[in-house]
Amino acid sequence: MTKIHALIESKTNQLRSEIISFIQELVQTPSLANEEGPVQKLIFDKLKSLDLQSETIPVKFDEIKNHPAFNDDGFSPDSRINVIGQWNSNKKGKSLILNGHVDVVPTGPERLWTESPWSGALKNDSIYGRGSCDMKAGLASGIFAVQVLKSIGFEPNGNIMIQSVIGEESGGCGTLTNIVKGYSADAAVILEPTSLKLCPIQSGALTFRLIIPGKATHAAMRWDGVSAIEKFNMVSQSIIEFEKKRHSSFSVEYYESPERVAPINIGTIKGGEWHSTVSESVVAEGRFGVFPGESVSDARMAFSEHLKKVSDSDPWLKENPPILEWFEGQFESGRTDVEHSIINNLEIAYQKVNSSPAKIEGVTYGSDLRLFTNHANIPAVLFGPGDVRLAHSANEYVKVEEVLTCIKIISNLIVNWCEE
Ligand SMILES: [Zn+2]
Known about the structure:
12 helices, four-stranded antiparallel sheet, about 20% strand, six-stranded mixed sheet, 16 strands, binds zinc ion, Alpha-Beta Plaits, alpha/beta, Aminopeptidase
């Protein structure tokens, strides 16, 4: 066992420049949503070169659109593919999915970048570019863990499945397709940037629209009308209190900031027609945080009940209640029990490579984790190199050292998990 650990260490270090080049090549191949084809071709060729049983899986919205977790990202579905590579799919021991998405978010204004967002430049022992941190380096870590283990002659007793998926940023159609098609394992590691923290818990987020009615009249007689803007202010203030109250009634253990687990944010407001008219209506759109362990329907109900309570305290809103609509992204929360053996095994693997113990943390952003835990009964954990705060920003980067550490940890995890 100790010997394998030492072999993993030295083999990974040997592969350093090959690992860097591969991640650079992935970053230099832009892969915005619906344009993931070229980068998936690179991944497919790489998995084939490792002698994995490799296949491409077309993502067709027709096959997943009736699934309760489906989110339509509005892109043409039929030219998009997932890539899967399986190692020892015939073995019956414990199996593991290593999942990563290749789609990246838009670059934003290029002038904010020091170099092209697709440079893949290597500077200060870090790789720069859109997708470097989120999450091409993570996906590469999973692939290279397999390469390291193969090159030292290790054979897992169960199936190790690399899943390179599309469409995560825009709703998860890639991973959902794999689930609907029945690709499964005893656990999944999603190699998202977590700064190598173990993140088995994530909040959800629901997009909403709130329409607040008023009664228009000439501003000179404003007392005869009802200002939707004033009513909106009242509702908006109450939402801040409501958000606070919700945080005290849910378990927020494992979160770095327990008062920031499930934010409710109003992102846009549009109200009024004309400066000298009392506003007839306000339309506000926002994002409603869902606590781990809270269902989407319970979260929606809680918000409706809150709005009803506020409206009942106001004569106008009581008669003319705000209209609440849910639209676009509707992302559930998800969690895996921190006592689950995959978490335990990952902690052990972490400690083999690092001198300090692993840290377990909940995250407030969405990911494909919920699809595994809620819809495939597969315990899952986010774990990978890179700082999520850099993930969607200009000059995104990932540190090479962290990537190598991740490869070593995932390699050790596979050894522990598949020998049990
Ligand atoms: Zn990501």
